[in-house]
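Dear colleague,

Thank you for sharing your sequence with our group. We've completed the structure prediction you requested, and as agreed, I am returning the results in plain text so they can be pasted directly into your records. Please verify that the sequence below matches your submission; if there's any discrepancy, let me know and we will rerun it promptly.
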Amino acid sequence: MELGNSIKKIRKKRGLSQKQLAAKMGISTNGLCSIETNQTWPSKATIEKVCDALEVEECYLLLFSMTEASFPDDKKILYRVLCKPLQEELLRDLQTLE
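Please find the predicted structure tokens below.
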């Protein structure tokens, strides 16, 4: 799972800098950077703050965290057929919600 990468991707789609998102969450920019680079795994409370600040449901964040590598070899087709297209559609939706 690449939770930090998904936070970064959604943050950028929302047009926010790291500094802006960190301020909305009430954490340091360095703390957010550490999360986005997958150096630190955020607590449940921090994930809730991220979702509130980005105005997305936690399930969006988890869906964006999935990669093809998250699936066993015999299930990778599910990622390619279901998850990847859904991620792309939701990213388009995030742009129109701004």
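Summary note from our side: The chain has six helices and no strands.

Kind regards,
the structure core
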